[in-house]
Write a structure and sequence with these properties.
The chain is mainly alpha-helical and about 150 residues long. The protein is about 45% helix and about 5% strand.
């Protein structure tokens, strides 16, 4: 059965910055968040609702909806700024490799909270070195011909 997002009242109770979000906007963005959570619901277990709400908050923030600083900056078109100067005030975001590695999720504080949950569930294969790959012809495919004591 497909995962369904928490009710709007539950969402705004947990994230009061979005209390003014319209029903249509909440329905659209929470449905998108539910599609992210659905395939990994079993992995998320008790945190599935939280993950869905964080994804919804992330999407709403990117649209400039909400009262938080991230949303206000997105509404003004300044969400992805590196350096911002206005009169004598100058702001610059420090480069953070960990935030940059999060891709789109790293653009909001909600996405940054969600990313570790998603990464734990969809981490992908781990690739490690296995040493020499020995075939019957004495060639390991990487370093050339194997010495006779390895064959």
């Amino acid at each position: 059965m497909a995962y369904s997002a928490p009710a709007k009242d539950t969402f705004t109770g947990i994230f009061p910055a979005f209390v003014a979000v319209g029903d249509e906007a909440y329905a659209f963005w929470s449905a998108r968040a539910a599609r992210i959570v659905d395939p990994i619901q079993a992995c998320l277990a008790d945190d599935a609702a939280l993950a869905c709400m964080l994804a919804t908050a992330h999407y709403l923030t990117q649209q400039g909806i909400g009262t938080g600083t991230d949303a206000q900056m997105a509404a003004q078109g300044a969400s992805g700024f590196k350096r911002l100067k206005s009169g004598t005030l100058e702001l610059e975001k420090a480069d953070s490799a960990s935030v940059a590695d999060m891709g789109d999720w790293g653009t909001t504080s909600y996405g940054q909270q969600l990313y570790p949950m998603l990464k734990a569930c969809v981490g992908g294969p781990r690739v490690t070195g296995t040493g020499c790959v020995v075939s019957g012809d004495g060639f390991n495919g990487f370093a050339g011909v194997l010495p006779p004591w390895v064959r």
